[in-house]
Structures
1.
Amino acid sequence: MDRQGNELNKEQYIGAPIERAHLHRGFNSKKTPVKWIRFFRACVVQREIAEEKKKKKIKKIWFIFLGIFIGTFITSPLTNISPVFKILPTTLGMLVFPGLIVAIIMTYRTNKKFKKNFAEGFDFFADYFSALFTLIEEDLQVESKIALEANLKHTITKENLIKNEAYTSETSGFIKGEEEHYERVISKGSCLFYDESLIFFQFTERTRKRIILKRGSSGKRKTKYKYRAAYPFTIKMKIPKNKYQLNPSVDTKEISFVEDDAYYVFKVSRKFDVKKENPEQYNPYNESSITAFAVDYFSLEVINLINTCYSCVTPSA
Amino acid sequence: MEEKTTRCEEFTGLFVVRNCENNATIVCDKCKKNVCSTHAFKANQIVNPGKEHAVYKKNNSILCISCFVEFDARLTNDIELYSKDRSVWRRKMIHRFHAEYPYMVFLAEDYGSLFDRSSTVFLHDDSDEGSYFDS
Ligand SMILES: [Zn+2]
Ligand SMILES: [Zn+2]
C-alpha cells in the first residue's frame, strides 16, 4: 500500500532522456503499461519544466529592457542637480532602441529553441494513451509489453499530403478554392491479452485544409484557410480459435471479419469527429480538434471497439 | 500446525475477469473480505467520504478496493494514473463502462482451464503486421 496516492515529483524528471521523444517528435518502443504511463508523464512534466524556464528567461529579458526604458526618465531630473549626471539618461536613452531590438531577437530565439526541443500536443497524447493502457493493463499477460510507435509531427506537411483538388462555392465574393487532404498516423501498436488474443491498434489524424480566395465586402481580395479534422481509431483483433467459438451472427456492416488457421480476425473502427459529435466545439480555423474529446470518453470508446470484437465470440466450454 | 494461506477475494481483468492470484494478507474492515496488498487501500486516503463512511477514515481502516471505490468521491479526472490509485481509476471507469455500453465479459472460472495462464507459451511477434493498416 506504500505507493497509494503517490505522484511523481518534478525532480525525478530533470535530466531524463525523455527530451529525445520530443526532439524527434515521436518514439517507437515496447514497454509495460506502467512504464509507458511513467514515460508519458515524464514527457509532459519535462516540457512543463522547460516551459516555465523559458517564460522566466523571457520575463528577465523584458525586465532588463524595461529597466533601461524607465531608467531614462528617472535619471533625467538628475541633470538639474549637476550637468555631470547628464551622461546617465543619455547613455540609457541611446540603449533603448538597440535594447528593444536585442530583446525581440532574444525572445524570438528562446521561443524557437523551445519549439524545436518540445513537441506541441503531447499532453493529449499522454492523457489518452495513459487512460487506454490503464484500462487494458489487467487484461494483458503478466509483464507483457505494449508495442507503441508514435509520430507527433504536424499533420499539415508536404509528406502527409494525400491529394488536392479544386473547390468551388456559391457564396458571394468567391473567386477560387482548393482543398488539400492530409493524413498522419499518430500512433500504432500492439499487445497480447491474457486469453492470447492479439490486439493491433492504429490512431490517425485526417485533415482537410480548404484554401479560399475571395473578395471581401470592401472589394479587397483575401485568402481564408479552413480546417476539418477527423480521427479514426482502428482495432484489429485476433482471437484464438482454440479458446473461442464464433457466434452465428456477426454484423459485417460494422465489423470486418476473416479467419485463418488459428484465429478469428476482426477489424473495427471508430472515427472521432468533433463536427459531428459536438458541433459547438468545432472551430474551422483550428488545424487540430483532437483535444476536444474528453479522456474518459475517448478511452471508453476505444475499449468498446475491443468489446465489439469480443461480442462476436463465446469461450469454448 | 500448518498455516493455511487464503487467496485474495478480489478480481482482475476487464474482459476476461479472473480471481486475483495473490495471497490475502489483509481483511477489509467493512466487508470482511480477504485481500492482497494490491487490492487493499488505506481509508485515510479517501477524499470527501460521505457521513456514513467517515468512521472508516477516522479509524484509519484498511478497505478492499471495492469498498474503497464505493467511498471515494473523486472524479476520474482527479486521479493520478502513475500511482497505486490507477486501479481505483480503472474500477471507476469499468463501472461506467458497464453502465454505458452493452458489455461482453467472460468469467474465467466459468471456463475452467481455458484461460489458464500457463497453458501455452506464446510468442508475441508483430513485425509482419505493419502492412495491415496500409489500405
Ligand atoms: Zn470491502
Ligand atoms: Zn488481490
2.
Amino acid sequence: MADFSFWVIFSNLLLAARWTVLLSLIAFISGGLVGVVLLFLRTSGVKALAWFVRIYVEVFQGTPLLMQLFLLFFGVALFGIELSPWAAAALALTLWTSAFLVEIWRGCVESVPKGQWEASSSLALNYVEQMRYVILPQALRIAVAPTVGFSVQVIKGTALASIIGFVEVTKAGTMLNNATFRPFLVYSLVALIYFALCFPLSMLAKKLEGRLNVAR
Amino acid sequence: MSPAETRPLVEIKDIRKSFGPLEVLKGISMDVAQGDVVAIIGRSGSGKSTLLRTINGLETFDSGSISVDGTPVIGGEKELKALRRKVGMVFQQFNLFPHLTAAENVALAPKVVLGAGAKEQAETAREMLEKVGLGDKLGNYPSQLSGGQQQRVAIARALAMHPKVLLCDEITSALDPELVNEVLRVVETLAKDGMTLILVTHEMRFARDVGSKLVFMHHGKVHEEGDPKTLFAKPGTPELAQFVGSIG
Ligand SMILES: Nc1ncnc2c1ncn2[C@@H]1O[C@H](COP(=O)(O)OP(=O)(O)OP(=O)(O)O)[C@@H](O)[C@H]1O
Ligand SMILES: [Mg+2]
C-alpha cells in the first residue's frame, strides 16, 4: 500500500512537472525576446529609452516576484480583465525574467571594447547593424554562461505560480500532501524534481564559464 | 568648373571643442585637397586625435564647421552615415573584429552598408587584402595575425568602402619596431596611388618623406603648417624646433 501511494504521488508530481517545465520555457523564451528588445533600447544611446529600461529593471528587480504575480492576477481583475492563473503566471514571469536578462546582457555588451563601436561606426554601420554584426556576436559568447545560470532562477521562480492556483509541481505537491498527509515524502519528491531540472543547468553554466576562461 | 571641383576635399573651419572646462581645439582651420598627404604632429595632449575624430563624427565639436567632399559633418544618423561612407579611419589599436576572419572583416561594411552580394564581397576582400600584401591570409582570424598584419587588414577594411579620404591615428604606435615598416610601406603606396590621407604620426621621417603637408599642433591650435621638408629643415617657430629636436 505504501509503495502504491508512493508511485501515485510520484507519477502525479511528474505529470505536474510538465507544467513547470513548460512555464519555465515560456517565461525564459518570451522573457529573452522582451529582454533583447529592452537591450536595444537600453544601449541605444537615446536617453529617454535608456531611462525607461532602467526604471523597468528597478521595478521588477526591486519588488518580490510574488507581488508582481498578485498584482497581475488580482490587480488587473479590478480593471475588469480576467487573467487565468496560467496567463498571469506566464506574463509575470516573462516580465520578471526580461528585467534580469537585460541587465545580464547589458553587462556583456558593455564588456565589448569601445574600439569595436568606433571601428564599426567609422565603416558607416548604424546602431542596429553594429549590434547585429559586431557587438552581439562578441557579447553572446560572454553571455551564454550567466544566461544559462539564470535559467535556474526562472525554474525556481515558477514555484510561486502555485500560490495563484496554477497547478505546476509545487501546487501538485500541496494538493497531494492534503490528500495523503505525507509532507516529508511529497516535498522531498518535489524538491528532487526541481533539483533534477536545475542541477544539469547549473553544471552546464559552470562548464561554459570554465571554457570561456580557458579561451581567454 | 563646378564648385565641388574647386573646393578642397576636406574643409575645416574654425573648429572649437571642449571636454568640460578643458578647451582641446581652439579654433582650427585646415583645407585638404584631393591627393594631399597631411601629416599632423604635435605633443601628447595637443588635440591631434580629437581633431581627426571630428572629421568622421566620432567626436562632436562645439562650433565651426567641417565638410568632406561637400558633405557637412553634422549629428544626424543619416548624415553621419553619408559622411562615413566617404571617410575611412584606421586606429592605433587596429580594432579588428575578432570574431571575423580577415576577409570577413574587410567585406563586412560592403555587405551591410552597400548591400554587396556574396561574390562581390569575396572579390572585394581578396582585392583589398592583396593590395596590403595579405592575399594569403583571407581565412585568418585577427588573433592568428601579427600586429603589423592586423593593421594592414584594418587598412584593407577601410579601403573596401572606397573612401575619399583616409584618417590614420598613430597607426604604427602600438606595433613592435620591426613591424612598423610593413605598415608604413602600405601607406606610402596608397599615397603614391593618389589617396587623400590625413595622418597623425610620430614617425617624423615618414612625415617628411611621404607627407605633402605638415601640420604642427600645439595647445589645441595649428601652430605651424607648410611643406614638410622645408619645415623640418627650418622650423618657423621655437616650439616646432623644440618638438622636432626632442623627437630627433
Ligand atoms: N573623451 C574625453 N574626455 C575628456 N577629455 C578628453 C577626452 N578625449 C581627450 N581628452 C583630452 O583632450 C586633450 C587632447 O586629447 P587628444 O587625444 O586629442 O590628444 P593627442 O594630441 O591625440 O595626444 P596623444 O599624442 O597622446 O595621442 C587631452 O588633454 C585629453 O586628456
Ligand atoms: Mg592621440
